[in-house]
Structure formats: C-alpha cells, structure tokens
Write the structure tokens for this entry.
Amino acid sequence: MRVALYTLGCKVNSYETDKIRETFQSEGVVIVPFTELADVYIVNTCTVTQMAAKKSRQILHRARRLNPEALIVATGCFVQAGGEKMPEGAVDLYINNMDKPRLVQMVNEAMKGRKELETAIRLRKEEVRGHTRAFLKIQDGCRQYCSYCIIPHVRGPLRSKDPQDVLEEVRHLTSQGYKELVLTGIHLSSYGRQGTLTDPNDRITLGQLIQRLNEVEGLERIRLGSLEPGLITEEYLEEIAQSNKLCPHYHLSLQSGCAKTLRTMNRRYTPDEYAQAVERLRRFRPETAITTDLIVGFPGETEDDFEESLAFLRQIGFAQVHVFKYSKREGTAAARRMDQISEEVKHARSERAIQAAEELSWEFASRFIGGVREVLLEKTWEQGWEGYTDHYIRTLVEEEKTSGQRMLSENQIVSVRFQNCVRQDGEIYLKGVIT
Ligand code: SF4
C-alpha cells in the first residue's frame, strides 16, 4: 500500500501527521510524496481561517484528481468543525480529531477488500522532507476564546502529556538521530496548568519540563512552538536559566500591536505587557530572536490602529513576522461583527506589513554577519548546505566538494562564520562558511 500525507495548519497537525506516518512505516507501508500516485491520500486539515478551510477543500480535490480510485481521508479541525461545506465526492472517510490515534487502523479496515490498485510511479521533482527536527505535541486544547478563533470549540479540554511520557518519547527520537526538538501544543503556554493526562494534581510547568529535557543525552536543541507573552515571567526565566539547549528563539504570538484591537480580539495582554515579556527575554539573552504572527484587517481596525501595529513591529525588532489577512470563521464572535474591513484594504495593509516584516528580518539577520553560530544542516543546495541557526535564521553554508564528494552530511551541526545576507527565492538567508 502506498500512502501520501498532506498537512495544513499548525505544528500540532505536523506532529500528528508525523505520528501517523511513523505508524504506517512501522507496518511496512510505503509513504510517497503527495504529488505521486498513491492508494491512500490523507489530508490533515485546518480550519483556523476561512483561507485554511478553503485550502483544505482544494487539497482534498487535488488528491481525488491525482488518483480517482484512491481512498481519500480527511481528518483534522476542518472535519471536527462539522457544518463546513465538505467537498462533495472528494472524500471517502472522515476521521475527527479524537479518532486520530485510531486513524491507521481505520484506514486499514477501509482498505480491506478494496482491489489492490495499480500504481504507476510518476517521479516529480519534490523536496525531500528532512528528518533533522522532530515535533512533539505535549499539549492539546485551548480555553482562551480569542474572538476570531474556532479552535477552543473544536479541540476539547486542556490536556498535557505526562513529563515521563515526554521524556521517553524524546529519548526515542534522539535514538533515531533527531538533534532538534520542537515542543508544540494548541496552547503551549497552558502546559501542565490542569495537571497532566494521568493525574490532574500532578502539576508541572513548561520551564520545569524544559529543565528535564535539557538532560537528555544526544538532544542538542530544544525549540518551543507558539507561546503567549504571559508565560514569560521572572519565575519562568529562573526555571530555564540552566537550560543551555533551549534555543534563543521565541515565537510569541502577537496578532496586533494596537491595544484596542487586542481587546476586541480578546487577547489577554496589552502591547506594553508584550514588550515587557520581550525585554525580560532579552535581559536574559540579549540576541534572542522573537518571531510572531500578525493579523491585519481585523474587524474595526482603523488606519491609525494599523499604523500602531506597524510601529510596534519596529519597536520590538522582530526576526520574522507571519502576516495574515483576517478572514471570517463562522461561529466566532469576530465573524458576527458588522465593521468588517474590505478585501482591498486588507490586501493593502498586508502588503505594507509584509514589507515591514522583510526589512526587520533583514536587519535581524544582518546583526550576525561577521559572527559565528552553529547551524543544523538540513538539505543540500548547489554549493553546499541549507540549515537553521539556533536563532532560527535560514542559512546557506558553502562547501567545496572533495573529489566531487560532499564531506558534510544532513543532520550535522557545524560552526559557521557568516559573511553576508542574501535574498534567494524570496527568502532571506545568512550565508557563510565552515570555521
Ligand atoms: S490562543 Fe486564541 S488563537 Fe490560539 S488557539 Fe487559543 S483561542 Fe485560538
């Protein structure tokens, strides 16, 4: 059986798809790129924005076109949200989030009795997925009820993985060669708040978990998924003070730099509180990279509000900003507001925010020119390797081949001296050589 997987949305979905992939592989199933002919196509969907839901539908249709005879499986939040307009005729099997752990078994059952399909291999140019960074989901559920988000309605109560289970999984991942670990969750800042899965009284904080993971042999880097600024307290900084594997990179969710817009989004911080969190992190490690998400064109956002957001981006000096145009999610408070912003205005603001974000990324990366940092090599390019620094800056590393052979290898961590910044395929890279 040949299975192709596609993931939309957050790191949690990526993690869950990785687990599904691993389970299939342990059963001897061949995993093929989504562009190839397969017997089963599994789409782990997302519905966080209208755009994500649209893309989920498109990918399901694409799977059907790739092989009209295949079993097409839809899982993830798009399925969970129900009520969504499901793509007619494109899907054979819907699996909700709660049933994801049984997905492989359900697919196997559905495939039983199906005539084995002739699969012609159409090789296409496809980037090979690296196995250098492992994603581990340690938390599920969210109780924040941001006014634009459907997730608290579809992901169930807060749940945290037991630290012992986390440690075991991380040891397993490092034994497979993974050097970098990304801890993810739907609302990672809530990790341990309601106790753990097996014992509601067994409280542990994210900082304490990081302390324990820091001791895992073979693990070189710990990176955190999206966090809320409220997590960054003095206590948290004390907890992580000795964790030398924790990357100096935080993805702190912002969404807006305007106090009024944050209130209408029901976000639980002000721009000042956000700036204080960043200041604490940088007091601890001055070069800390802060990356974030920004929503433009939220209902009621005026031109002045948007300007306030832009100014805030510059005040913080973000290393990366992912800009999203607000899109309505049915069932949310924001979708019912009468003061929606026109697509034209959203587009114009998005363009300006992207421009500002690129300038900031360039500025941030440029600070490292002349310096040396470790880079985890992930894939090759013509003249060497591509990878990420601990600050999560994309890096091109030049390597001269010896007798036509590369001496470096994927998943190796090397010290690189940065010579300049370049733009390539629309992305910003630091470029350097091995020291
Ligand atoms: S914090 Fe807000 S945006 Fe994030 S999952 Fe929870 S409700 Fe959604």
